[in-house]
Amino acid sequence: MSSEATVASLKGEKGDKLTKETKKPSQKARDSLTPEDHLEILRQLYLARYFDVRLVKEKRRGRLRGTLYSSHNQEAILVGTLFGLRPEDWISPIHRDMPAFFLKDMRAGWDNPNRKGLSIEAVCAQVWGKVDSPGRARDNWSHIGSAKDGIICSTSMLAGTIPVAAGVAYSMKMEGKDNVVVTYNGEGSTAQGVFHEAINFAAIHRTPVITIIENNQWAYGTPVELECPTKDVADRAKGYDIPGLVADGQDVLDVYDKMMWAVEWARKGKGPVLLECKTFRAYGHGDHDDDRAAKYRTAAEVERGRARDPIAIYKKHMVEMGLLSQADSDRYAPEGKDAPSTTDEDFPPEVVAALKKAVDFAVKSTLPDAEEAFRWVYAE
Ligand SMILES: Cc1ncc(C[n+]2csc(CCOP(=O)(O)OP(=O)(O)O)c2C)c(N)n1
Ligand SMILES: [Mg+2]
Question: From CA 192, how far away is CA 30, in angstroms rounded?
Answer without folding.
Answer: 34
